[in-house]
Design brief:
single chain; alpha+beta; Fusion Protein Consisting Of Minor Coat Protein, Glycine Rich Linker, Tola, And A His Tag, Chain: A, Domain 2; three-stranded antiparallel beta sheet
Length: 106
C-alpha cells in the first residue's frame, strides 16, 4: 500500500478510534499492534481482521496492548466502508495496518 493510500485509510479510521481507556497507560510507546485486513472493492472488510502473530503475542502478555488491539478492531468495523479509489483496488485489497494511540493522538 502506498503512503497516500495509507494516509487516506488512517484518516478514515481516525474518527472511530477511541483510545480513552488507554489514557495513563504505562509505556505508551509499547502500545503498538499490527492488524492484517482484506478489503472488498466497495471498501468493506472481507472476513475478520487478524492481529499479526507478533501483536497476538504482545497482547497476550500485556492487557494494555490487548486494549489497543480491541480499540483498533472496533474502529475498523465502525468506520467501514472505506472510501478508497476503486481503480487502485489491487494496491489496497490486502493491508497490514499499524495502530498505536500515539499515532492517533491528534
Amino acid at each position: 500500500m502506498t503512503a497516500d493510500l495509507r494516509t487516506i485509510l488512517y484518516n478514515e479510521i481516525h474518527p472511530c478510534w477511541d483510545v480513552g481507556a488507554l489514557a495513563g497507560a504505562p509505556n505508551p510507546e509499547q502500545l503498538v499492534v499490527y492488524i492484517d485486513l482484506v478489503l472488498n472493492p466497495d471498501g468493506t472488510v472481507a472476513g475478520t481482521p487478524q492481529l499479526t502473530a507478533q501483536s497476538q503475542a504482545a497482547a497476550a502478555r500485556n492487557p494494555f496492548v490487548q486494549a489497543t488491539a480491541s480499540a483498533a478492531l472496533r474502529a475498523i468495523h465502525r468506520c467501514q466502508p472505506f472510501k478508497l479509489p476503486v481503480d487502485r483496488y489491487g494496491e489496497w485489497r490486502t493491508v497490514t495496518m499499524r495502530f498505536s494511540p500515539q499515532d492517533f493522538d491528534q
